[in-house]
Amino acid sequence: MNIDSIPDIETQDAEDTRPILVVPYVWIGDFVRGHTVVRVLRKRWPNRPVDLLTTRQCAPLVDYMPGVRAGIVSDLPRSRLAISRQRALAAELRARAYATALVLPRTWKAALAPALAGIPERVGFFGEARFGLINAMRWGEKQQPRFIDKNAILALPDGAARPPEWPVPQLRVPADEIARWRQVNGLGTGPAIALGPGSVGASKRWTYYPEAARLFAERGFDVWVVGGPGEKALAQEITAIGGAPVRDLTGTDLRNGALAMAAASVAITNDSGLMHIAAAIGTPTMGIFGPTDPYLWAPLNGLAATVRQTRSKLSCQPCQRTVCTMNDHRCMRDIAPEEVVEIAQRVLAQINAR
Question: Domain map of the chain by residue range?
Answer without folding.
Answer: 3-155, 175-352
